[in-house]
Every structure is written in structure tokens, then in C-alpha cells.
Please model this.
Amino acid sequence: MTKGRVTREKTWVFDPHSGGEPIPAATQDVIRQRILNHAQEHYAGKFARIDVRFRGAMCYIDAYNEPPPDSEGLAKLCRVPLAEYIEGFRNTPTHLVRLRHFGLERWSFAFYTYSNERYEPSAYPDGGWFGTVEQAFDVGAVYLTD
Model:
């Protein structure tokens, strides 16, 4: 059952960015593998690893990278020891997207905006509110760089 909200006028309005259905453990395994396969097939070399987490009806996708070759100079600029800089870089996620589960092939998503430091509800590139996890990953992949 999808949830909506009631406005002051007591009119039901569907909201694709609220509610959703808890993601069963078996579905989590399938979705995690689909995301990892898609990332490897289309974005190999642009990340060190991808992290997929689930909580209730939500699926969070983050990317991690290795420090850049000029880390020694950057560590000096930041006034931290090189080992600490490298460790911090490796363990700092790049948030890509948050997905909301409405069915195996029916997900709404929110794009992480670093300007506001929050997930912003988004439409898929085709203008629709629902799509696949792979389509949402493609939008978040704008943050993946060589």
C-alpha cells in the first residue's frame, strides 16, 4: 500500500517521496548485486568501492575513492599527517542517491546535493517519479570522476 498525505482541504495527494515498503532481506541481496554489477559494468575505474545500505523502505548508495596522487601536498595544505589524510579520504563516502522502495522495479529516488548537504527528491531523466535502481545510480554517478 502506498502512502500519500492529506492536505488542509482533506484531499489525498500521492507523494512518491514518502511511505514505501520495507525491503525484504532476499530483495536486498538482489538489489545490492544489481547495483554493484551496474556500477562495475558502466563506471569501472571511477570508484574504489560502492557501499549499498538498507533501512526500512530506503536504499542508500555511496561511493568511496582512493586518495589522489598528489596526496602528500594536499595533506600539507590541510596540515594533517599524510597517513591521517589518506585514511580520512578512503573512509569518507561520496553520497550518490537514496532510493525508496515501492516494488522490485518501482523506486523513487532522491539525489544528494552537496550545496544543501541533503537528499533532494528527484524525478528520473524521463520525467517520471519511478524507475529502476540502475537508472537512479546513473543520475548519482555524476559525482564519480576519474
Remarks:
- The radius of gyration is 18 Å.
